[in-house]
């Protein structure tokens, strides 16, 4: 039985289905969960439960169309995890005992990250895909499921988000072809992108604070966000999504780091022009992603993390010299 037949059969044989995306969700993670929910409804004629441990950025709520995400994982027969290379990207602060219990259940893993550790009983993984939404779009096409205008908008937003507006290196011929097909289905890119990229005043003030921290040394750009900045501007952590693109766009920067201080940990976003495989580097610290874009979460002070990761990046650059 091929993976799509297994997917459909597993959905049809399950009574209580939960669809989960990673905490601190990006646009592709949110959209992949939403379109996956539509896939489940096609076969079950009932709503699955959407799960995300952290709040969704407010500017993306227009995509929900009545759907709601819960923050507490309910009982389930089937758990479909989208856009997450590791189970630990979905569940923060989970105990080893809870993790063992979770892994014993039926889990379907749908993802496009090269660093995916192939968890779950069924894996639908394509490291060459631009996004998880691209993978699920192709599932819809192969299964002959109709995509309406509302759903087309969600697919488009997911692909747009993970390709950085169709400018990142993962903007493939296939991704552009799918985007074109979605436009033919009625997607209006201009107003949709305007909604995606809308900025709040507090988010803009936070950006100003973060940009003032930029340091550049030997082709590496680094900037950071602290809890004090959030308090000063009254912004949320989710307002800082894609801030790293400002650092990576600076002339001469080959690798950029964006450190975000959480209450009990430090998050690091990494970008590279290809000279350093940041996915491989991030994997050393329990993170991962793609060759040119990856992330890490470390339970250490932001100052210690800065020194550690910056040192690792410089060591990689020395190897290339």
Features:
single chain, 321 residues, alpha/beta, inorganic pyrophosphatase (n-terminal core), Diaminopimelate Epimerase, Chain A, domain 1, 2 domains, six-stranded mixed sheet, 40% helix, Oligoribo/pAp-PDE_c-di-AMP_PDE, DHH_sf, DHHA1_dom, nucleic acid binding
SSE topology sketch:
Elements: H1 3-12, E1 17-21, H2 27-44, E2 49-51, E3 69-70, E4 78-82, H3 96-103, E5 106-111, E6 122-125, H4 132-143, H5 149-162, H6 173-184, H7 189-196, H8 201-211, E7 215-217, E8 220-225, H9 227-233, H10 244-248, E9 255-261, E10 266-272, H11 278-283, E11 288-289, E12 293-298, H12 302-320
Parallel strand pairs: 1-2, 1-4, 2-3, 4-5, 5-6, 8-9
Antiparallel strand pairs: 7-8, 9-10, 10-12, 11-12
Describe the structure.
This is DDH domain-containing protein. InterPro entries: DDH_dom, DHH_sf, DHHA1_dom, Oligoribo/pAp-PDE_c-di-AMP_PDE. Helix 2 packs antiparallel against helix 5, helix 5 runs antiparallel to helix 6 and helix 5 crosses helix 7. The protein contains twelve helices and twelve strands. It is an alpha/beta fold and 321 residues long. The mean pLDDT is 94. The chain folds into two domains: 193 residues, inorganic pyrophosphatase (n-terminal core), CATH 3.90.1640; 120 residues, Diaminopimelate Epimerase, Chain A, domain 1. The strands form two sheets. Strands 3-2-1-4-5-6 form a six-stranded parallel β-sheet, with helices on one face.
